[in-house]
Each structure stands twice: as C-alpha cells, then as structure tokens.
Amino acid sequence: MDYFSKGKELACYHCGKKETGNICCSNGHYVCDDCHGKGCFEIVRDYVLKSRTANPLEIAEILMGYKDKVPMLGCENAWVAAGALISAIRNEGSYTVTDDQVVEVLNRTKQQAIGGYCGLTGVCGIAPAIGACFSVVLNAACPKDQETAQTMRVVAKIVSVIASETGPCCCKNFVRQSLQEATYLVKEILNVALENNQQQLSCTDIERHPHGCRKEKCVYFKEK
Question: What is the rounded CA–CA span in Å between residue 74 and residue 32?
Fold first, then answer.
C-alpha cells in the first residue's frame, strides 16, 4: 500500500467515483469507502440484530470470521466493534435498546469511521464506534452535560488503548482491545456486567496483514 502525506484526487477502481484520497495500492488502484465495504454493513447489521449473547468479543469474532466480507484492515472493523458492543448491551437486558437504536449506532459509526484516519488524524474509527454505543444508551447530545462528557471520556480512553497497540496498526487487535476495555467502561458507567472471553482469543489473521503482523508484540499472536 502507498500512503500519501497530502491527499490527491483519485478515481475508484470499482465505481469510477473521483474523490480526494490518501491511500492506494502499489499499482495505483484506489478503492472508495463505499466499494471497500460493499455488502459488509448489511452483514454486520443483520447479525447483531439477531444475536442473543451478552459477550461483545464473541460477536466480534464471529463477524471478523467472515474473511471474504470483512477486510483485514478498514473501517468495516469499526462497524463490527460498534455492532458487537451495542448488541451485547441490549442482550444483557439492563437497558432497553431497540432495533432502531442498534442501527443508529451503526449509522453514526459509518459517518465518522473513515479508512486510514487512524494515521491521518490519530483517531481510529473504532473509538467513535465505541463512543456511539455510549452516546445512544446515555442519550448524549451537544446541549447536555454529563452524558456527553462521559461519552467523550470513553472515546478518549479507547483512543489511548489503541495507541498502545500501534506499529503497525491492526484493526483486528484494535477491535479486540477496544471491546475488552469497553466491557470495563460499561461496568463502570452503566453498571452492566458483560461477558468477556479475551484470554481465550487467538488471532487467525497473521498472514493477511499487508504491513506485517506485530507477532510477539500482540497478545493475540500464538506460535503455530
């Protein structure tokens, strides 16, 4: 992959749409976010709406297992994180979360999670994905006080967790670490205990990473 320090006009290899982009493959091919995640949003939405587990990591692992639909890297992984957490909160039962609210979380995430911006602005799309879950549950909004402050603190904490796992960035690691931290924040802020099987997770995407796996630097790396 080639990364540009300054955005340039690029045409999507699939649909031909022209837009400013900062990333293309080494052969000059550019794929817009719409084409990059085509079909994935619906898969995530449909699965989390029918899921019944209160374990967000379990939901995320199942969704990331759709390797032909969920790319190794990209903000489709933010949709996974958002859907997994809000679905788990709903399934736990302490809070009433409607189908419309689940979709609202995913739509908000889609608006702010943009491919490559973990490096371009320092905000991985998984951070606002987790924030969207808290915002919807707490009913946060610009005019409000504590609800919005708590949501912002959640996002700041998730950014900090992700920052500790970079080099190179790995969306799979970021999803798992963010959801792990989110389970603690859900307990602290919402007083909801979600299931958590983080210690049992082992990555199956080691060979897929285009920038090379972090291997021993990643808690999910297991020698074959």
Answer: 11
| Strands annotated E in 13-116 | 18-24
Which residues fall within 8 angstroms of residue 97, CB to CB, at 6 or more apart?
A: 86, 89, 90, 136, 137
What does the pLDDT look like over 127-163, one tens digit per residue? 999 999 999 999 999 999 999 999 999 999 999 999 9
Cβ neighbours around 167 below 10 Å, total: 10
Radius of gyration of the chain (CA): 17
d(CA 138, CA 122): 25
User: b/e per residue, 52-74, with b = 16+ CB within 10 A?
Assistant: ebbbbbbbbbebbeeeebbbbbb
Q: Report the 10 Å Cβ neighbour count for 214.
A: 20
**Residue that has been written with the tokens 């995640």 in this structure:** 37
Q: Which strand (E) or helix (H) includes residue 40?
A: helix 40-50
